[in-house]
Amino acid sequence: MSVTRAIHRLTSLLGEGLSLSKPVLEDHGRSETYFPLAAPDAVAFPKSTEEVSAIVKICAEEGCAVIGFGAGTSLEGQAQAPFGGICVDFSKMKAIRRLAQEDMVAVVEAGITREELNEELRATGLFFPVDPGANASLGGMASTRASGTTAVRYGTMRDNVIG
Ligand SMILES: Cc1cc2nc3c(=O)[nH]c(=O)nc-3n(C[C@H](O)[C@H](O)[C@H](O)COP(=O)(O)OP(=O)(O)OC[C@H]3O[C@@H](n4cnc5c(N)ncnc54)[C@H](O)[C@@H]3O)c2cc1C
Q1: Cys-Cys link to 89, which of 60, 69, 101, 148 (CB 3.0-4.6 A)?
Q2: Angle, nearest 10°, between helix axes 49-62 and 3-14?
């Protein structure tokens, strides 16, 4: 069980989708928090749910931490890696898989940001109302159960995420 073995296996799985570059590691060890840098050992950029699943399986088998990363806007150090491990950056998973306008339901990948989603929704007359003041990803916002200035009228992520 080791991070080194996990990195070796993840390199075989992801190829260039795994970064060990120092600037990339440092970018993923900060976020908007005031805590000092706590960088992961590697950053994975999965492109599908299957890849995310395989990454988590490898990390579980090798006993190393997995840290999700959306847009890195969280303020309390949630996206940092104080014990190292593998950061999973969702920025290559931004697809809108289904848009059921009549039901006001969108099925999206976790990496899409709220502004990107609203840009896509513009023509439908619908909008995604949760606005924490940062252009955060839907996955990160679900994780922090984000709210914001529109929460009194439209609710928080808890009220808007149905699956
Ligand atoms: C200027 C500013 C104002 C803000 N105002 C508010 C406010 O009024 N109300 C409020 O609620 N919040 C507020 N926030 C905080 C904001 O809600 C969070 O920054 C945001 O929800 C985090 O989204 P992110 O995509 O940046 O996630 P990140 O910061 O990247 O990650 C946040 C957490 O989510 C996890 N994560 C990320 N993606 C995934 C995923 N796909 N699956 C599982 N876990 C994942 C990370 O591991 C981490 O623990 C504010 C932030 C800023 C910068």
Answers
A1: 69
A2: 160
Please name the residue whose Cα sits nearest to atom 15 of ligand 1: 74
- Could you tell me the distance, in angstroms and rounded to a whole number, from the CA of residue 42 to the centre of ligand 1? 21
Alpha carbon of 24 to ligand 1 centroid (Å): 19
* Spacing, Cα 39 to ligand 1 middle (Å): 17
Least-confidence region, from 29-33, 39-43, 125-129, 130-134: 29-33
**48-67 pLDDT per residue, tens:** 999 999 999 999 999 999 99
